[in-house]
Amino acid sequence: MSVEVERKFVCSADNLKTLEEIGVCIGQRQFHDQYYDTPEFHLTLRDMWLRKRKGCWELKCPLAKLDGSEEPRDVALCTRYKEITDLPEIHLRVKEVVGGDGAEASPSEEDESWLGRWRLACFAAYTTVRRSFTLEEEGVQVDLDQADFGYDVGEIEVLVPECGDVQRAMEKIRRTAQKLGLSGDERVEGKMDVYLKRNHPEHYARLLSEHVL
Ligand code: V4E
After folding, report:
1. CA–centroid distance, residue 146 to ligand 1 (Å)
2. Atom 7 of ligand 1: nearest residue by CA position
3. Which of 35, 51, 60, 81 to mutate to test the pocket of ligand 1 (most atoms within 8 A of CB)?
4. Which of 31, 29, 86, 41 is nearest to 59 (CA)?
5. How many CA atoms lie within 13 A of 162 on its CB side?
6. Range of the structural domain that residue 131 is part of
7. Where would a tag sit more exposed on the chain, N or C end, judged by fewer CB atoms within 10 A?
8. For the segment 74-98, what is each residue's pLDDT rounded down to a tens digit?
9. How far is the CA of 20 from the centre of ligand 1 (A)?
10. Domain count of the chain?
11. Confidence of residue 70 (pLDDT cuts 50, 70, 90)
């Protein structure tokens, strides 16, 4: 399990020019994501994001937050999520929240009967074209995403091993943001914010009112 520390940004023409000067483009790829939840939003109301990408299941769970009052603004802009890709572990965590019947000890990727058993249905699906860059700053990746529903967003990302130094990762992100000339310190909407706002406004409103988004 690793922790993804990330800051989203709106990539202006100037930011892109700087990124192309100081970074190295390591490629472009396309992927389709399908996100699942119960009709009562058991997972997303807990800020847990279950998705299928390229045939594999992934679960993003939030890392405990620092005390918000003590967080500098640029640190507060970084999100921190555990990324779980081990299917038995995903089942255990999902089961804990949806309160379903027993999880199988060794579930297979092909058997998706657990979705119906736990009343999980796809609530969002979209395709992203992603261009990725690496920078001199060790371990930092910058992704420029274009979602097929007409929304572009950038992310500065550092992957940290489970017991790794999240604070150091946030420092790296702060330095990278400065180098790219990112000025704004407002929270930038992710693809899911925009997708839900347009397609499922009631789900979006619920997540806003519970301060998940
Ligand atoms: C964690 C999360 C969601 C799941 C999708 O996360 P995101 O990083 O936006 O997706 P993507 O496609 O970039 O995945 P990657 O390839 O980086 O793993 S949807 C909403 N959230 C929570 C969230 C939040 N509260 N605030 C911000 C700015 N982003 C996400």
Report:
1. 14
2. 190
3. 60
4. 86
5. 4
6. 2-209
7. N
8. 667 889 999 999 999 999 999 999 9
9. 24
10. 1
11. low
